[in-house]
Amino acid sequence: MTTNVWRKASALTFSPTLQALLFLGLSSTVLWTIYFSTYPPVHNAVHALRHNTLMISCH
Amino acid sequence: MRPSLSPPAPLPQERGVRNHGSVPPLLRERGLGGEGVLILIITLLFLSGPPAFAQTGQGKVLLTLDPPVRQLIPFEAEAEQQKSPPRFRFEAQDSQGKVLSRVRMQIKIVTPKTNPWISTDFPIVEGTELLSLDVPAAQGVVEFEQMLPIRGVYQVFVNVLPMQDASATPLVKQVLTVDVPENPVKFRNFAILAGICILVGVLGGAFIGRSGRTDILPEAMRLLLIGLTLTAMAALIFINVSAESQGGHTDMAGMANSMLPVSAPSIAQDRERVLNLDGVKEARVGTAESFQAKLTDRHTDQSIPSAFEVSVINTEKNWKLFSIATPVDDQVRWRQQFFDGSAHRIEVQTPPYSGRPALVTKSSVSVEGIAPPLFVRLKALAYLTGFVALGLFGTIGLKLRSARTGVSS
What we know:
The complex is a heterodimer of chains A (59) and B (409).
Chain A: H1 2-13, H2 16-35, H3 40-45, H4 47-51
Chain B: E1 9-10, E2 17-20, H1 23-30, H2 34-56, E3 60-66, E4 87-93, E5 103-110, E6 129-137, E7 141-146, E8 152-162, E9 172-180, H3 184-208, H4 219-245, H5 252-258, E10 267-269, E11 273-279, E12 282-284, E13 288-297, E14 306-314, E15 319-329, E16 331-337, E17 344-350, E18 359-368, H6 374-408
Parallel strand pairs in B: 12-18
Antiparallel strand pairs in B: 1-2, 2-9, 3-4, 4-7, 5-6, 5-8, 6-16, 7-15, 8-9, 10-11, 11-13, 13-16, 14-15, 14-17, 17-18
Helix pairs in contact in B: 3-6
């Protein structure tokens, strides 16, 4: 029973669909942090990059 | 029922500057003679009544920019060497094309409206009042410098009034537009960013889409990597949500302002005169604030007509936001938006008088920067994530297709 559940969980975890979603999630989180975060150290470090890229809003 | 006017007609002197809402272009385009003009004016009066005619006036205002509009780029934040702001020159003319002298001009510049699809780098500034002026134009000309923060179509509302009667019916009432192109560097950087996003997606797809070869790493190692991925995401989300929950106002402007010296006194005086500069000391991006400078007699407190030289300087990077040299008037009044969230210095100077030196007064304004609306940022994030998804699913799809082709053959 336990082995069966583990197998199903593994299959789901390693399925391309879930892996692709995880990859997209991580990518968008990193993109948000670089280009849109209001966290001051990040914001100040990439302020010029944000203002010099089309579509990226700052203040 | 109001008669429909002709579509906006471009002014002859410059591409990118357009003239809206004035009767003269309509008359000019149809090439009417004197009688035709009279008949049309009477018809307009009959159909729309005096207010409509009063709104249009009988002259026009010519706007020229230096540099020309097609050579303009918006304000470059973080530029090493900030360019000078463009110089606006307004010339009031009557219906014969002669300069209207001894008039006042009320000028208001409104920033470009919000584009629902693509934001500018200052979304808080979009569709707001940038500058308003009410200055005399003895020779029918007003000139000033004003930095333009973002790309797009600026609306410039101009009223030309008799010199001595600001409440009179405007001689000319006109709306001009200035279409400022985007800085080409931003397109280049966006193309690079989009390319990187697609490339990252392709790399992800190359690994995720390895059909039949999922045993590169042991299962435990793969689970560990997934765990690390989730932990990294959680950490980043925590940091960003914490920053957002603090109000979304970045501390950068506050930090910069706190290091500034105490504001210079906004009064300057000599034995006979007092130059007083009134206005706020704290402002917010997106909101125009009123300022007024006046020269008075120190003994009688009576206003002394004078010329005024006004300049507004960003003290963090030392670039000029606005400047004007007004002709002689009782005072100078203007409304100003500070679109960059950092401290500014306002300087007002009156020329030397009876052998006495010029009077100069300065005032500091701290400006609170405001983070862009969450929705605007989420929209841009969706675009960028879309590029990653394009590369990712495109690669996975190609791999699946080639795998199917391999199996079938």
